[in-house]
Amino acid sequence: MKNIIRILLCLMLAAGASQAAATEITDTKNQSHNKEMQHNDRRHPTPQHKIIPDDDFKLLCSLIGEGSFDSDKITIIRAGIIGNRFSCRQAAELLSLLSFDSSRLEALEYLAPHIIGKKEIEKLIGEFTFSSSKDKALKILSQREE
Fold first, then answer.
1. Within 13 Å, how many C-alpha atoms sit on residue 52's CB side?
2. 43 in a domain, yes or no?
3. pLDDT for 23-77, tens place per residue?
4. How many domains is the chain partitioned into structurally?
5. Residue 15, domain member (yes or no)
6. What is the pTM assigned to this prediction?
7. What is the C-alpha to C-alpha distance for residues 80 and 126, in angstroms, rounded to an integer?
8. DSSP state of 51
9. 61 near 74, Cβ under 8 Å?
10. Is 4 exposed, middle or buried, given 0-12, 13-18 or 19+ CB atoms closer than 10 A?
11. Under 8 Å CB-to-CB from 86, ≥6 apart: which residues?
């Protein structure tokens, strides 16, 4: 997992993410800091409006796929969203890499402010198994800022 974090940090720095944002990800190992970040970083969209390039997105998906547990995968998603924007299709693909609706909803909380457009929102909602989860996902997406 440490190697994955290092790779992500290199990618973030190469993509122009700030040193402070890179340091923030390494701190997620600290449980109390992690809970504070979960509250603070959900609604801070990036200023750029360009969708993540396909090559970078494929690399992010590959790194997420290497995570053993959903919690590991969510940590990688959180690192990967810094400085990036995603189409609905890309966000749906990221959610599909998680095993449980509860994990998908948690990841969507982080992803929502970084999603551009609403064309394929039904694809995003389709990633959820239960109707209650679909309703929660719609609520999360309706609260996002564009």
1. 28
2. no
3. 444 444 444 444 444 444 444 444 446 899 999 999 999 999 999 999 999 999 9
4. 1
5. no
6. 0.69
7. 22
8. B
9. no
10. middle
11. 51, 52, 57, 94, 111, 114, 115, 116
